[in-house]
Amino acid sequence: MNPPNYPASLAAFISRFQLQLPQASQISHNVRPAAVLIPIVCRPEPTLLLTRRADSLRKHAGQVAFPGGKTDADDGSAIVTALREAQEEVAIPPQAVTVIGQMAPLDSSTGFQVTPIVGLIPPEVEFHANEAEVADVFEMPLREALTLSRYYPLDIHRGGHTHRIYLSWYQSQFVWGLTAAIIRRLAQQVSL
């Protein structure tokens, strides 16, 4: 039965996400755990909340990302990490997030094994960027984000190996790397 306050498109997404097995991940060579929150804002037209990292950051400056970061020793789970980081970066109260599941971890180019956590956010939650970490917060319609044809492959040759990354754009935002890979994998998981 659909929760009464979710639009039909969001209820269908939740069902498909929870009924499909996540893609098997490759054997990870990364040992440092991290997690990101994939915040889905429960608007009549559901949206995906994304951030653009501050230009002053040492790593991934100016890149579009999900709220998230490395796991602290006392976090206890990827869910706790994702919720803690989302609160620190964009002021999403952990109690406002309805976690519907997690995806298989992905390896980052910086040596982290990143676990994406999918959570639903009520539309009345106000987002406030932590200016030390986040330059911008924006929303992308979930329907658009989950359109597989919007992700363009690019093969990069580095260190004698070929790595495939994905590129996408939304309005003036350039989405690529791990963030694009996570959204694309989510789109694959829920596609029928």
Automatic annotation (TrEMBL):
One of the Pfam families matching this protein, by short name: NUDIX
Family: Belongs to the Nudix hydrolase family. PCD1 subfamily.
Keyword terms: Hydrolase, Magnesium, Manganese, Metal-binding
One example GO MF annotation: coenzyme A diphosphatase activity
GO biological process terms, semicolon-separated: nucleoside diphosphate metabolic process
Record carries keyword Metal-binding: yes
Keyword Transferase: no
PANTHER family according to UniProt: MITOCHONDRIAL COENZYME A DIPHOSPHATASE NUDT8, NUDIX HYDROLASE
Domain of life: Bacteria
Name assigned to this protein: Putative NUDIX hydrolase
SUPFAM superfamilies for this protein: Nudix
Sequence ranges assigned to domain Nudix hydrolase in this UniProt record: 31-162
Cofactor: Mg(2+); Mn(2+)
CDD domains: NUDIX_CoAse_Nudt7
UniProt source species: Serratia ficaria
